[in-house]
Amino acid sequence: MSLAADARDAVRARPYLLAALRAGVVNYAAAAAELDLGDDEAVAAALRRFADDLPPLEADPRDAAVTMRSGVGLVGEDVEETDEDPVLSVAGVDLAGGGPLTAIIAEGEVDPTVLAAVLSRLDAESVVVDAAGVAGDALAVVVPRRQGAAALRVVESAVSDLYT
């Protein structure tokens, strides 16, 4: 494999670096040193060429209503079995009302790209995410109750200020 191909693969393994290349905010010498693929100058040149081929990040705000639902928990552990529709269900594991967590729900123009942005921003704000998912036109993230208000603000901001 060529050095250029190795550099592209290394960048794709680091989504933060891929986003920085697309945003045009990379110090190529520092990025090459971090990737540690060999001759830093050659790697930096390969990164410059790769960045030129990438689409730039563009604003892609979405229209979605964001709400918060307190008192969510794991059915069978935190919450007794219920006829209530779960807030989030993954592989037969349901989160529904009656527990110690808070769900932030966005309904509208949401997809996995929005979920990725939401999770990245929640991580940057040190908000713990206990569960997350997206299906159809709904996205849900479940966080500890005390972090519900902060998570609500982050999700609202991520949806309205999305870059893809």
UniProtKB/TrEMBL annotation:
Pfam families: DUF7523
Name under which the protein is recorded: ACT domain-containing protein
Species assigned in the record: Haloferax chudinovii
Lineage: Archaea, Methanobacteriati, Methanobacteriota, Stenosarchaea group, Halobacteria
